[in-house]
Design brief:
112 residues; mainly alpha; 4 helices; 63% helix; elongated; transmembrane
Length: 112
Amino acid sequence: MNRRPRTPSMYQRNALAPSLIAAPTLVLAPLLLGGEWAMVVLFIVAILAMITAWFAFQARQWWWIVVFAAITVLWNPVYPFPFEGPVWTAAQPVAAVTFLAAGALIKVPRPS
């Protein structure tokens, strides 16, 4: 077979890996937030939100920084808010989709 060599991508998506970890955590969060795992979920989401915000800063996509600063504050484990009920349960998948969108859209030019 005659295969053409692949052309490397001109961009790299550094925020994709933390987003792919945070999204399933947030999807499972409604099951975990009522028990012993609640603090672990808050730590995972808050830390990965800060990492994603840092990659947004590096990519000069400032609007994502505001979004992930809000996620960091809402899911912070140090002074957790006493959120519960259907609104908090619905916020989990919304944040998961936000992470996935950011992971796909935050990109920086690949160094040559």
